[in-house]
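Lecture notes, structural biology module. Today: joint structure prediction for complexes of two components.
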Amino acid sequence: MGRSLALVVASTALIMSASTKLQGAETVWSGLVIAENVPQPEPIPPELTRIERSLKKLFGYNQFQVIGQSRKTLNTGQEDWLATSKFFGLHVDARGESEAGYVLNLKLYKEKELLLETDTKLSKRSPLVIKGPQIGSGQLLLVLVVQ
Amino acid sequence: MRTFEEKWTAWLDGKLSGRELTEFEASLPDKAAAEAEKADAKKLGTLLKREIGTYDLANEEFFSRQLREKIVRESTRRSRKRDSAVATWWTVRRLLWTGTASLAVFLVFAIFVMHDKNPAEQSQYLTQILNARVDSVVSPNATISMFEAKEDRVTVLWTEGLQSLPADYAAK
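The predicted structure, tokenised, for the full assembly:
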């Protein structure tokens, strides 16, 4: 009897702790991606696998290469970080966390020149893709994913 | 000196004896008929005794009272039995078990219902673009739009007319 009761209490505690863990710290992957059409496309980077179908369908390119990236674990939801390539910089400033996701301010720089700024509420379940400027025959894309 | 009727009654009751009995029986005009009448009287007496006794028992009030008492006794006994049965089933141990099990079921349901609630409120859980702007000096003809690709839950900020750059800018 006592043993069974302890088992029930332990299971309940386990379920509760698992549920709490689901709400814990998460990592945001931010990437600068060049989309191009090439005869021999390279495999898509693993960070983009889950949205590969949408990327190809929406932008019409067959190759996606990461030219700059950053992976940031958010603890307070107030952190900021930078993903950079040789000429571009994506500054991400987290301004709070809600049950649905994170409020972010994004700024895309070409060297020191601000090209684009946006405020978003990034959902933990929904990636964000921003279409940047045309670069040669390809396209610059900014991708943010909560992992 | 007793009259004939008194002697007749005593004879019927079997209370005459000795000379008085002999003289009385000798005075009877038809002894066989008298004996038959005596036998009938005895039967009647027996019958009356029995019936009178039954009458006493068949008294309406007496039976009603007895019946009521019996019903009360039976009801009390049954309710005691029922009470004792209930008290036996809900032991402290069973109450504790039932409480714990109910709490566990509630928690499991609460957690799973909360998690399952998310797909139903999908729109709230898609990334939202609150605002966006481009440098109008560098890209004066730029336009911005936004939409959602439902299949992968991707939110897209779509820009048009941004300044195009040479391929060198694709360097890592």
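Point to remember: Chain A touches chain B through 53 residues (CB under 8 Å).
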